[in-house]
Amino acid sequence: MAKQIKVSLIGNPNTGKTSVFNLLTGLNQQVGNYPGITVQKKEGICKLSRGVKAHILDLPGTYSLNASSLDENVVIELLLNKKDKDFPDVAVVVSDVENLKRNLLLFTQIKDLEIPTILVINMADRMKRTGITLDVPLLEKELNTKIALISARKNEGIDELKQLIESYGTLSSEPCVDALTFAPDYFERLKKAFPKQSLYKLWLVITQDVNFRKIDKQELDITPDFQIKSESELKRFQQKETIKRYQFINNVLKKGLFIDEKAATGVRARLDRILTHKVWGYAIFFAILLLIFQAIYDWSSYPMDLIDEGFAWLSEVTKSVLPAGPFVDLITDGIIPGLGGIVIFIPQIAFLFLFISILEESGYMSRVVFLMDRVMRKFGLSGKSVVPLISGTACAIPAVMATRNIENWKERLITILVVPFTTCSARLPVYLIIIALVIPDEKIGWIFSYQSLTLMLLYFIGFLAAVGASWILNKTLNIKSKSYFVIEMPGYKVPMFKNVAINVIEKTKAFVFGAGKIILAISIILWVLASFGPNEKFSKAEEIVSTAHTNLTGEELETEIASYKLEHSFIGYAGKAIEPIVAPLGYDWKIGIGIISSFAAREVFVGTLATIYSVGSDEEETIKNRMAAEVDAKGLPLFNLASGISLLLFYAFAMQCMSTLAIVKRETNGWKWPLMQLVFMSLLAYSTALIAYQILK
After folding, report:
1. 167 and 19 in a common domain
2. Which of 234, 264, 294 is the last residue of a domain?
3. Which of 49, 173, 193, 598 could be bridged to 605 by S-S, CB 3.0 to 4.6 A?
């Protein structure tokens, strides 16, 4: 069995830690959650020399071990617990050459935990441009560590880093600074009280209990010789510790880091003045969004057509190759159309993730967060709430998890409750097919189409709903709180292709496989319900229809029989039962079934209609064509402007995701808030859709 070294990747946000993780692990990585909590856990395998592998754990970004959020607390709890299966053999602290002073604070704290530590100084390719020179041997001596000077962008220095990881046994685990000298009497008594414990680990346990009183931790067996300090005194001690560390860091960098001010350029400052401008900043942001939505339509049309034709071909080939029977009908009329209704949207979802990744990688997303903080504060939120709201365009579940970075409970609760209004990728398949059916495919001028503008408007409506709900909750929730917004502006950089590619692949894969399981199960259930009926009207459908329509023959008769059987199947009767509820919104019983089934997950709607419309049909028609051919009782197209807008607005506001409800329940420790969220959003969706249809019909 190959030897495996356990490595913890630690660092401040925006130091390129994710880039280093991707270079070490490639696609040999997996994403999950830490046991019992919703903080994301990323881990992967890195091959070193022959017979040696490294298990890389990418810990959440943290500025120091004086944690201010539960997300950061994950780092501390792992590094304090040697019994944890992920406790590292070696810690790799990633820093940014342009922000070395700030990054070294965390490094010195990690060293105090007496874990073998490697310092990675990233973005070495920017040293010449910014006029920075490093004396690496001197820094290694002063910091009592080994340093890997790398450029993740140019893939330089990674082999050296792998060698250092493999030879971690030769690294010193001694601290590089004695930072606990500001209160000698206090720490002397603490050492006497717990002679077998590491002094700095004791200090962390004591101070972190101040920040996380509600978390169950093992209580220290305090001896009579040790006097407990008040919270305010401990906080003053933390500040003194930080000052001591920065004094040491300043002295080290005076000797080991040199900056030629003449070589540095001011391009970043000039760009920031434009991109964060109180007028032009917003104009540029919305122009970028509009271009993204137009590109989603234009670029994805070709692969979507290929996928559409491929699934139609697969269904026909399956029918022709396999012997006729219920099992083949299940595959060709249930599973293949259901999955095809989702797979066809992979190109558009992948393009959405692509653009979001590029914005994050380039450093522009941090400017958006800063820009939107001005707006958010008026509605009871801060700029930190923008991160979950923007990440909610991918999926509400990780967006709700991302609220753990918000220290203020009121802001965090409000953000959790309004995040599902943000248009997530699960809504995208519904939006795209309905827009294609009811919005003309015509362009304004020569670049923007009505369809892309409609899609952007739906995203904008979702954001407005989130902000409006935030304002209401801020006024109604009686929770007194005070918060401050601090954000780091990373340097601008050209996005790394590997980072973007891995992000797009992983997130698209998670969406497809996560949705695919639900869709497959529901497609099978729906096919069974649509293929069998409770009485003779279903079993004798051919006889009844043939008698009633003696003038029909061939395909027309087959279509009429299939329609009659569907209407008198189990799913038909269920749809008819709920039709009076959805009819005022402009929907028929088939759409009603789609809406009910999509409460498991929004994206199931398209797969449900694909399954329902394909049952009993031998035609090589796409789901879009089948939906376009549907007519109401008056013989008019069922999907018209009124019913289409009604359906779009219903999905814009409805809380149709059981997984999100489960996450909200976990994050708020009860069913009170998720149930209120479900009821409010459902009522808002129904009433908005009702008003829209009644006005437009």
Report:
1. yes
2. 264
3. 598
- Tokens 């409506």 correspond to 461
Q: What is the pLDDT of residues 624-676, one digit of tens each?
A: 777 777 777 777 888 888 999 999 999 999 887 776 777 788 778 778 898 89
- Are 251 and 393 contained in the same domain? no
Report how far residue 541's alpha carbon sits from residue 683's, in angstroms, rounded to the nearest whole number. Answer: 39
Q: How many domains would you assign to the chain?
A: 3
CATH number of the domain residue 16 falls in: 3.40.50.300
Give the β-pairing of 117-122 and 90-96: parallel
Same domain for 284 and 259, yes or no, is no
One-letter amino acid of 424: C
Domain edge (last residue) among 264, 297, 329: 264
Same domain, 252 and 301: no
pLDDT tens profile 452-466: 888 889 988 998 999
Nearest to 598 by CA among 523, 510, 667: 523
Q: Which residue has the tokens 């827009």?
A: 435
Evaluate whether residue 125 is within a structural domain: yes
* Inter-residue contact 144 to 170 (CB < 8 Å): no
Give the C-alpha distances (Å, rounded to integers) separating 95 from 69, 101, 118, 252. 21, 9, 11, 15
**306: number of CA atoms within 13 Å, CB side?**
7
Q: How far apart are the first and last CA of the chain?
A: 70
**Count of CB atoms within 10 A of residue 620's CB?**
11
Comparing C-alpha atoms, which of 285, 262, 290 is closest to residue 274? 285
Q: Encode pLDDT of 264-286 as tens digits.
A: 555 666 788 888 888 888 888 88
Classify each residue of 592-608 as buried b or exposed e, where b means 16 or more C-beta atoms within 10 Å of its C-beta: bbbbbbbbbbbbbbbbb
Q: Which tokens is 493 given?
A: 């950089």
Q: Is 483 a member of any domain? A: no
**Burial of 145: CB neighbours in 10 Å, binned 0-12, 13-18, 19+:** buried
> What tokens appear for 202 in the block?
């004791």
Outline where DSSP puts E strands in 97-181.
117-122, 132-134, 146-149
Q: Looking at the structure, tell me whether residues 78 and 224 fall in a common domain.
A: yes
Sheet with 52-58, side-by-side order of all strands? 29-33, 40-47, 52-58, 3-11, 90-96, 117-122, 146-149
Angle, CA of 241, 402 and 38, to the nearest 5°: 95
CA distance 41 to 235: 30
Residue 101 lies in a domain: yes
Tokens for 172? 């010193």
What number of helices (H) and strands (E) belong to the chain? Answer: 31, 11
Determine the residue type at 369: V
* Residue written as token pair 């356990």: 6
515 and 426 Cβ atoms separated by less than 8 Å: yes
Collapsing DSSP states into helix, strand and coil, what is residue 564? helix
Question: By CB neighbour count within 10 A (0-12 exposed, 13-18 middle, 19+ buried), where does 531 fall?
Answer: buried
pLDDT digits (tens, 9 = 90+) for 9-36: 999 887 888 889 988 888 766 665 555 4
Asked whether residue 82 falls in the same domain as residue 231, the answer is yes
Cα distance between residue 16 and residue 9, in whole Å: 11
pLDDT of residue 56: 92
Q: Would you call 85 helix, strand, or coil by DSSP?
A: coil
pLDDT of residue 342: 67
- Residues 62 and 89 placed together within one structural domain of the fold: yes
pLDDT in tens, 143-153: 999 999 998 88
Phi first, then psi: what are they for 30, rounded to 5°? Answer: -140, 155
If you count them, how many residues does the chain have? 697
Asked if residue 301 and residue 258 are part of one domain, the reply reads: no
Looking at the domain assignment, is residue 487 inside a domain?
Answer: no
Cα distances from 71 to residues 38, 76, 567, in angstroms, run 9, 10, 52
- Sorting pLDDT into bands at 50, 70 and 90, what band is 1? very low
Q: Which domain holds residue 580?
A: 522-696
Tokens of 69: 């959020």
